[in-house]
Design brief:
mainly alpha, two-stranded antiparallel sheet, 2 strands, about 75% helix, flat
């Protein structure tokens, strides 16, 4: 557990530094008359994440957190199984984005996660998995005017209906 804590903090710290570096390619400060620059949100969020990683490392070094005092393994058999099931689901989600669209992939992942991993009823599964991607569609495509990947041409009829509602 102790090793897992510092390794995770180190990996997240490296990711934070990378994200700060990449987001600094855009303005990270306030632009007069326009507001925050395009890189402001990711840069400063990554900076907070880096400080948090530093605090985790400090607590690890001082052995003040429960994981830093533990010599138990970070993941038991159940933990590894869940890591593979959730991580595998995310890999499949990413692979499906260009096939069935971002919103279709979100729906598929929610169906898998809520029904298969969460073992909830079909009613609850559908009550969440169907409206959430539709709400995300209206938020990103309608309100934010950010187009997400729409997948293969067979998904066009669904999007045509939703675009008619927006416009």
């Amino acid at each position: 557990m102790r090793n897992g804590e510092i390794i995770t903090a180190g990996v997240l710290a490296l990711l934070s530094i990378y994200f700060m570096w990449k987001s600094a390619e855009l303005p990270i400060g306030y632009i007069e008359g326009k507001g925050p620059g395009g890189g402001a949100w990711p840069f400063w969020l990554s900076a907070v994440m880096l400080v948090s990683c530093g605090m985790i490392a400090l607590n690890w070094w001082r052995r003040t957190s429960p994981p830093s005092q533990s010599e138990e393994p970070a993941l038991d058999e159940y933990g590894w199984r869940m890591l593979l099931l959730v991580g595998g689901g995310i890999v499949v989600f990413v692979a499906l984005v260009n096939v069935i669209s971002m919103y279709g992939a979100i729906m598929a992942f929610l169906l898998y996660y809520i029904r298969y991993l969460g073992r909830h009823s079909w009613a609850l599964t559908f009550a969440i998995a169907i409206p959430v991607p539709i709400l995300f569609f209206f938020f990103f495509e309608g309100a934010m005017r950010i187009t997400m990947p729409s997948g293969m041409p067979f998904t066009d009829p669904v999007f045509n209906i939703l675009y008619e509602i927006i416009y």
